């Protein structure tokens, strides 16, 4: 998980090559186990790096895969982050209707995660 989170930090700082390297290493390590939080965190990092590089198709692919995995284990906080980044991808493409639906879903997921904690 630490590698995946560092990759996400690097992607947001603009060090996309390092983000790619760490996220792919995290995915390689997690392949030995059926599923871990690091798997969808790595996809979030890769999607974020691809978004900032304007590789929107690749970004969407990573974010959708991370979202699929996070949904399997009802990891709502991660789902919120992934949906937020997906909304940014759709906005960048000018697909405002999909961006709005995705952002609304992200907001609902984040709110449900907060209520689950209380």
In short:
The chain is mainly α and 118 residues long. It has helices at 2-13, 16-30, 37-52, 56-72, 76-93, 96-117. It contains six helices and no strands.
Low-confidence stretches: none
CATH superfamily: Tetratricopeptide repeat domain
User: What is the number of independent domains?
Assistant: 1
The structure class reads mainly alpha
Distance between the termini: 25 Å
Query: Biggest sheet: strands, sense, closure?
Result: none
Which percent band covers the strand fraction?
under 5%
**If you average the pLDDT, what whole number results?**
90
The proportion of residues forming helix, as a percent range, comes to: over 70%
Q: What letter string, H or E per element, gives the SSE order?
A: HHHHHH
Number of strands: 0
- The helix count comes to 6
Computed over alpha carbons, the radius of gyration is: 14 Å
* CATH third-level topology: Serine Threonine Protein Phosphatase 5, Tetratricopeptide repeat
What does this structure look like?
Helices cover 85% and strands 0% of the residues. Helix 1 packs parallel to helix 3, helix 2 (16-30) runs antiparallel to helix 3 (37-52) and helix 3 packs parallel to helix 5 (76-93). The longest helix has 22 residues, at 96-117. It has helices at residues 2-13, 16-30, 37-52, 56-72, 76-93, 96-117. With 118 residues, the chain is mostly helical. 42% of the residues are buried. The protein is globular.
């Amino acid at each position: 998980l630490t590698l995946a989170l560092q990759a996400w930090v690097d992607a947001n700082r603009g060090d996309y090559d390092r983000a790619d390297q760490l996220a792919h290493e995290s995915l390689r390590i997690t392949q030995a186990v059926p599923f871990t939080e690091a798997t969808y965190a790595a996809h979030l990092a890769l999607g974020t790096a691809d978004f900032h590089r304007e590789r929107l198709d690749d970004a969407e692919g990573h974010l959708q895969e991370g979202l699929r995995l996070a949904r399997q284990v009802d990891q709502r906080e991660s789902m919120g982050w992934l949906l937020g980044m997906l909304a940014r991808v759709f906005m960048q493409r000018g697909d405002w209707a999909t961006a709005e639906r995705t952002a609304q879903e992200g907001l609902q997921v984040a709110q449900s995660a907060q209520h689950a904690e209380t």
